[in-house]
Write a structure and sequence with these properties.
CATH architecture of the largest domain: 2-Layer Sandwich
Strand content: 25-35%
CATH topology of the largest domain: Dihydrodipicolinate Reductase, domain 2
Structural class: alpha/beta
Number of helices: 15
Distance between the termini: 44 Å
Radius of gyration: 20 Å
Helix content: 25-40%
CATH class of the largest domain: Alpha Beta
Number of strands: 17
Largest sheet: 10 strands, mixed
């Protein structure tokens, strides 16, 4: 397996989890950092210097790999560059990001018998997968609200990727889902959210409907669906508001990237980082109206993203052939169980007494909305 972006925060987690699964090839521009990671792995991997913007370097890296895993970013700038090199080398492809722009570029291009999985991280990926668990106990879903966000410092790459995603197919602010179509959200543009699953008294919530949520709501035939981005601290949210008011072509400028990184650092200063995914459902369950909620809280989004990608790689042969979004083909229960084993500080609650299958290692906590 070839791992692109191996010594980044996400790639490092993937490498640590896959080191025992077979020969791992570590790729990155800085050979010294890749060698340092390999020493941490006990020298079990192969280090292969890689400049993903050099076609010959990328082709050489992918040559001989059965599966190429891309953890490099920004994914909205890389797009299908690594994917096409992997496919040309005869390899399958797994991307922790990519999202709709990558999916659209690869649709209809895969040779028979090949597998490509995109959006195989925390958000999107686990966010869409996790929301399916409480939904299983409903015969009809009248309303579903999905929440994602938290508190953590952004890297330069993550900040640039976030800004590149604005207006680029990832989702839309102030939009909602109703009866199978998009419409303007009636929720306030900014609101103070208080829930028992938040580690603080309250956070800022902004209506934002991602394309992953649109697929989720369509698949589950949700009557009314809404997504919310969560921010604690206020600095990052304020910086984003300023940037979104600027011209689209300048939003991902070095100045704005630096502003996002600095704002996230100010928010997290002296506080405990966390990322939360949550879902609330109203609908028909066992013949009566029912409300339920579920939430997942982790300390590090990068490690959570890497863990989801590693799970995909370890179960690769069980996945269907073709091009897929991770949330549509992964086993939700098995993925959550494995994530909990790898990241025991990750808390998961399925409230309201819902049992979404034999979830042997998950905490099941009662709760109300």
């Amino acid at each position: 397996m070839g791992l692109v972006g191996a010594y980044g925060s996400v790639g490092r987690q993937v490498a640590l989890l896959l080191a025992d699964s077979g020969r791992l090839r570590l790729g990155g521009r800085d050979r010294q950092q890749a060698e340092q990671l390999n020493r941490q792995l006990g020298g079990r991997a192969q280090v292969c210097p890689l400049d993903l913007w050099d076609e010959s370097s990328l082709a050489a890296f992918c040559s001989g790999c059965g599966l190429v895993i891309n953890c490099a970013g920004p994914s909205y700038r890389i797009l299908d560059r690594v994917a096409q090199a992997a496919l040309a080398a005869g390899a399958d492809y797994l991307d922790v990001g990519g999202d709709d722009p990558l999916y659209e570029r690869l649709a209809g291009q895969l040779p028979a018998g090949r597998r490509v999985l995109v959006s195989a991280g925390m958000l999107p990926g686990l966010s869409g997968l996790f929301a399916q668990l409480p939904a299983r106990s409903f015969q009809r879903i009248d309303a579903m609200r999905c929440y994602a966000g938290g508190l953590g410092r952004l890297s330069n790459t993550a900040a640039e990727d976030f800004l590149l995603s604005l207006g680029n197919g990832f989702g839309q602010a102030q939009m909602a889902w109703s009866a199978g179509r998009l419409l303007r959200s009636t929720a306030p543009a900014e609101q103070w959210l208080e829930r028992e699953w938040l580690p603080v008294a309250g956070v800022q919530a902004y209506p934002y409907l991602s394309t992953e949520q649109q697929r989720l709501f369509a698949d589950l035939e949700v009557g009314h669906g809404q997504g919310f981005n969560l921010f604690e601290g206020g600095q990052l949210a304020a910086a984003l508001r300023r940037i979104q008011g600027s011209a689209p072509e300048s939003r991902h400028s070095p100045r704005n990237i630096a502003a996002l990184v600095q704002a996230s650092a100010l928010d997290v200063a002296g506080r405990q980082p966390y990322q939360v995914l949550a879902v609330e459902i109203d609908g028909l369950s066992e013949g009566r109206q029912h409300q339920a909620s579920a939430w997942l809280r982790a300390s590090d989004g990068s490690r959570l993203t890497g863990s989801v990608a590693a799970f995909c790689a370890l179960h690769w042969d069980r996945l269907p052939e073709g091009l897929h979004y991770a949330a549509r083909v992964l086993d939700a229960v098995a993925c959550l169980e494995q994530v909990r084993r790898w990241l025991p500080d990750t808390r998961v609650s399925l409230a309201g007494g819902l049992a979404a299958g034999p979830i042997s290692t998950l905490e099941v906590e009662e709760g109300v909305l």
